[in-house]
């Protein structure tokens, strides 16, 4: 089935260095219509840089990125291409002086040039999809981290992008707020949203990923189904990393179980 679906994103031999530090070393993969791919790996592996190269926030040194067959890396109008790639960051990146509704509506007005009423309607619909419509008139300072991230996701989906990139969307959240964000992402996955997700939330990956890719030192060390990657990885690097994540997860659960913590 997957083979018949159109390629939405194609990443071909992406290299990126910062000075003498080679962060990405020839990364290639593709994401098809309604597919969810999860990238995981240690800190400093190049995961955020890879996402930034895909939407040209950080142009790669070599290689090319295609969106539905069109080159993103060589696009004349990179802003136009970027409008078709949703991005959800670790730290929300909301405008503090705008309400939740206006944070979602602003790109619809500025980038898509929608009339105010239509932008507002689409923004409200996006907030409804992430269960935040009741908070539409609240400012970021009045929202929890989980609520801010849900507004950020609403902002991405309101643009109706071809694909949404998620850069560790739960890593800046308090443990008890993580599930509300993952639930929204699960809903999007069930709705057929094409997603590329950098995350260490392995239960989420197990539930929704079509493929998992382990990135370490700028290369994809191993890739496979969640079942294969999480239960019988071939690489020692992946095995060691999973053990570490399991220990952290155990500690997190113990903390949450302790009353008054």
Share of β-strand residues: 15-25%
Number of helices: 9
User: What structural category arises from helix and sheet content?
Assistant: alpha/beta
Mean pLDDT: 92
How much is the radius of gyration in Å?
Answer: 18 Å
Order of helices and strands: EEEHEEHEHHHEHEHEEHH
Descriptive key words:
alpha/beta; 10 strands; six-stranded mixed β-sheet; four-stranded antiparallel β-sheet; 261 residues
3D structure, described in words:
With 261 residues, the chain is α/β, with parallel strands linked by helices. Helices cover 39% and strands 24% of the residues. The protein has nine helices and ten strands. The strands form two sheets. Strands 6-7-8-3-9-10 form a six-stranded mixed β-sheet, sandwiched between helices. Helix 5 packs parallel to helix 6. It starts with 6 loop residues before the first strand and ends with a helix. The relative contact order is 0.16.
């Amino acid at each position: 089935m997957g083979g018949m679906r159109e390629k939405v994103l194609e990443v071909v031999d992406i290299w990126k260095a910062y000075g003498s530090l080679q962060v990405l070393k020839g990364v290639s993969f593709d994401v098809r219509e309604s597919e969810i791919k999860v990238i995981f790996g240690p800190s400093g592996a190049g995961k955020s840089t890879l996402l930034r190269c895909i939407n040209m926030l950080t142009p790669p040194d070599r290689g090319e990125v295609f969106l539905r067959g069109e080159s993103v890396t060589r696009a004349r109008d990179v802003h136009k291409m970027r409008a078709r790639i949703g991005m959800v960051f670790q730290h929300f990146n909301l405008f503090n002086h705008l309400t939740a509704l206006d944070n979602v509506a602003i790109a619809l007005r500025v980038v898509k040039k929608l009339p105010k009423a239509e932008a507002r309607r689409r923004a409200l619909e996006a907030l409804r999809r992430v269960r935040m419509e009741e908070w539409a008139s609240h400012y970021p300072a009045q929202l929890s981290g989980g609520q801010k991230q849900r507004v950020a996701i609403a902002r991405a989906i309101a643009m109706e992008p071809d694909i949404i990139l998620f850069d560790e969307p739960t890593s800046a959240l308090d443990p008890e707020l993580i599930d509300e964000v993952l639930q929204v992402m699960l809903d999007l996955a069930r709705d057929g949203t094409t997603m590329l997700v950098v995350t260490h939330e392995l239960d989420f990956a197990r539930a929704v990923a079509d493929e998992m890719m382990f990135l370490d030192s700028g290369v994809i060390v191993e890739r496979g189904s969640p079942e294969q990657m999480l239960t019988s990885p071939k690489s020692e690097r992946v095995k060691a990393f999973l053990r570490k994540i399991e220990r952290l997860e155990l500690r997190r659960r113990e903390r949450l179980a302790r009353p008054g913590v």
